[in-house]
Amino acid sequence: MTQILILTISQVQIRTEFTQTDTEAEPEEVATEQQQSENSPNIIKGKKRLRRSHEWLKNKKKKARNSGQEYEDYRGRTIKAKSLPDLTNHVCRCKCTEKVTPDATQEFHAKFWALGDHTAQDAFLVGSTTVQKNRLPQNL
Fold this sequence. Notes:
By secondary structure, the chain is an alpha+beta fold. The chain is about 40% helix and about 15% strand. The termini are far apart. The relative contact order is 0.07.
C-alpha cells in the first residue's frame, strides 16, 4: 500500500511517497521539516484583520445623521431626529397646505430620510420636483 504525503513549505510543495515499511522513518523527517518551516521568516502566520467600516463609531454617526435619526455630534451633544413641523396654522402665499396633504408630506419625508445618502437624496428631490416657467416677465 502506497501513501502520498504533500506538505507545503514556503510556497514550495514537497511530495514524498512511502510504503508501510517506511512509516517509521518518515514521521521524523516530517517533524524536522515542520520545525524548519516554523523557524523560517518567510512564512506568514495568521490572517490580517478584516476592515469592518460599518462598525466604526464615526460611520455609525454619519449614517444616523444622513438618515435623519438621532445621533451624537463630535462634541458629545445629542442631536434630535428629523421631524416635520406642525403645519396646522401654516400660512403661505403658495397655499402649500391646500395643495399637499399632511399624509403625502409625511410619506415624502419618510422616503427622503430613509435613503440615507446625500447623492440619492439629491436625485430623489430632482425626480420629485417639476420646473415651471415664471408667470411674471423677467424685466419689470
